[in-house]
Amino acid sequence: MSNATTDYSDLKALYINGSIKKDKTKSHTQVLMNKSAKIMKSQGVDVEHIYLLDHAIAYGMIKDGKEDGQADDWPMIQQKIMAADILVIGSPIWLGVKSSVATLLIERMYAYSGDRNDKGQYLYYGKTGGCIITGNEDGIKHCAMDILYALQHIGYMVPPQADCGWIGEAGSGASYGDTEWDGKKIDPPTGFDNDFTNRNTTFMAWNLMHTARMLKDNGGIPEVGNTTEGWQNVANAKSDNP
Amino acid sequence: MSNATTDYSDLKALYINGSIKKDKTKSHTQVLMNKSAKIMKSQGVDVEHIYLLDHAIAYGMIKDGKEDGQADDWPMIQQKIMAADILVIGSPIWLGVKSSVATLLIERMYAYSGDRNDKGQYLYYGKTGGCIITGNEDGIKHCAMDILYALQHIGYMVPPQADCGWIGEAGSGASYGDTEWDGKKIDPPTGFDNDFTNRNTTFMAWNLMHTARMLKDNGGIPEVGNTTEGWQNVANAKSDNP
Amino acid sequence: MSNATTDYSDLKALYINGSIKKDKTKSHTQVLMNKSAKIMKSQGVDVEHIYLLDHAIAYGMIKDGKEDGQADDWPMIQQKIMAADILVIGSPIWLGVKSSVATLLIERMYAYSGDRNDKGQYLYYGKTGGCIITGNEDGIKHCAMDILYALQHIGYMVPPQADCGWIGEAGSGASYGDTEWDGKKIDPPTGFDNDFTNRNTTFMAWNLMHTARMLKDNGGIPEVGNTTEGWQNVANAKSDNP
Amino acid sequence: MSNATTDYSDLKALYINGSIKKDKTKSHTQVLMNKSAKIMKSQGVDVEHIYLLDHAIAYGMIKDGKEDGQADDWPMIQQKIMAADILVIGSPIWLGVKSSVATLLIERMYAYSGDRNDKGQYLYYGKTGGCIITGNEDGIKHCAMDILYALQHIGYMVPPQADCGWIGEAGSGASYGDTEWDGKKIDPPTGFDNDFTNRNTTFMAWNLMHTARMLKDNGGIPEVGNTTEGWQNVANAKSDNP
User: Fold this and answer.
1) CATH among 3.40.50.360, 1.10.760.10, 3.40.50.150, 3.10.129.10 for B12-233
2) ipTM of the complex
3) pTM (global) more than 0.95
């Protein structure tokens, strides 16, 4: 098996980090996101990163907080989301759940869910997404089920094994990518030699590329049975004779 | 918009109901599952239903309970799962979570996760799945995130809006499909005129068919970067120079 | 049965609303929180409300964002939390989960979890808490399990039925307390005549008062086996002969 | 600080293990449950263990499966639950969630939720409970939030830090209590020297004893505002003038 002969260079991927740390250089989740992004870049995918706390993001089920006088960089971010074929959301784990910032990110995306794509489907149809979770407490799967659920519910296709992450043994300790903990040097950095994490991170990156390729080549998802306007005109759950 | 001109008649769908009721005629979830199945049948999909409690299913992270002397119909069900392109899991809601029977179903599928398909990928790669949830208490989304997470984690592709369901207003009351409650006739049956449920049920059925079609035409998911044997030979998260 | 003869007038309760709406007069969750608070006030409990979005709250696992130059009203809120015997967290439901604002609230409380009370126990020992959830989509129980888990994990006692809420039938529709929907008047306001919601709201308010009373009369929870300093000096899970 | 001078010898605790392994000697969760039980026994608490898969338990929202011809040991178990002041539920983690067997256990307890105690409160009022979770994948907190939510919702008081558990670093590996893994001896057994797990296990055991003591001395929870019959006669959420 060799690297794919498929061309992925027309694909765009957006990685958004929902870390709660003001200083992005301290985000452990970013370290794993970078590994994932590197795989995509190696295949020619156009990758962009957003660290959400670098921006002022208003709260609310709103499209643009500036309309009622709030600072709000969201509309610019929404444009990038719409331009991307692949979305990867990163989140740390606190008390077993995804972060406030990752939650805010999903709320703001959801606020556009009344919009339609050019086929009349929900806005995010035709895109694919996944998530990357790290923490030193447990909760990768719980955070992932929450994020992946939201993504598919608003229109994303979720490929197999679309989540990856790293946590340590129960209790406090070094976090992903740490090179020092409790006064001791760690080499390789924490988690870098974890083949479970490395493998899942690899699977996810490739499955997102495969799925984006398939969707793009297919012109998205056929607009039959899945549009607000049209679902009652085909076989449906409401009437026996559409 | 008319019905699809696409041919779905080579697809197989399996609906498995994880109701906890011994008598399957009393399952409200089955009523909504039947509506979903009817849409697929109308497009030529070969649909089969399994009511899990009609069968003896052993507990455990095991492939066949008969090997240690337990009654176990699972291996026959596993064969049907492997033969199906589409899997739809039904579950009632109790205390806000999916049922014990639906949990058992997922555990038994998971027990095969060490197996590989003919491309060397996890066994369930190339298939797509969704879920149908009903209750008179709340929890559709919570049950769905749990089930859909499990499906994608073991290899299923999860299309947009792969969950549907019905619940009533907070508190006890009539359940989906009931024609009588508290001594009063209900016509149409409870939930049948809920356009949110009808629409989501329709979207899900069609998106599962679209995704199964796309996967089948594509020969499944390309086996690059997502096999136990091969992931270290392509761009990956472990080494910088594979 | 009559009103309690017990005196609750030495108790303080704090209600914090994690709504994502800038304008607090539009929060449906607040309407149900007010009903709950009214029960406590009728028994002499000193009740205070905080609408979190009225304040600037910094992100991070930090005690005071002002230390690194951010606007941050949290330290004042933390003081009120510490002064209260009872904490009630309100949250709306978006995509089946609690809000970003409620998540932020819990993160900031968690940032103090290294502190100890005057017995050497985790800071929040001796207090009791619950939650109030509304939405027009489903998810009361899922949001409640998330919030109540966090509360007990950081030291709160969680009484029976410490959650209450209201949701409507699956799909969009009027929200709790609405007096108009889709051009029609609603009287009584949406959900006000829901006896399930009324009963659970009542049970919760009283159980929080009973539990706070019991804890206060008992001087909190005895400091045996539950302090960082002392747990290895009593019967414990580490050594057979402490 | 020394061992408590409080007398706990009139308390009963029931530990129920929801492992999915037929052979209970192979349950890793049982090893940690035994450590917890040992703490309670050292203080004179009368402790009993049930390994649920040692028994035939029928599915359904039913009190006794024998009534419709099924083998069912549940009624005997329900009697033990009712006789116990403290309930501790153990569960392994599979795909990030609690087991099918633990789910079945909670469903069967829930089936009695229409019954009342001798004060007219829900049946389980006056009792306290917690949970113990192990796995080699992550999910302690997610399983715990699910189980503890169910317990408080049906009437249990949940003390601070009522959950404990052990998991290893992300990926497969030795499980709690293993003395050998991948051909190598492990001494002390896996997880035994994890102070996070040891501490939380200790905190939980003591907090359950403290809470059970407090509830028993208090005659349970006062029956004001929390009974089906009486809640409308005191300050409540339904009427302004009860």
Assistant:
1) 3.40.50.360
2) 0.96
3) yes
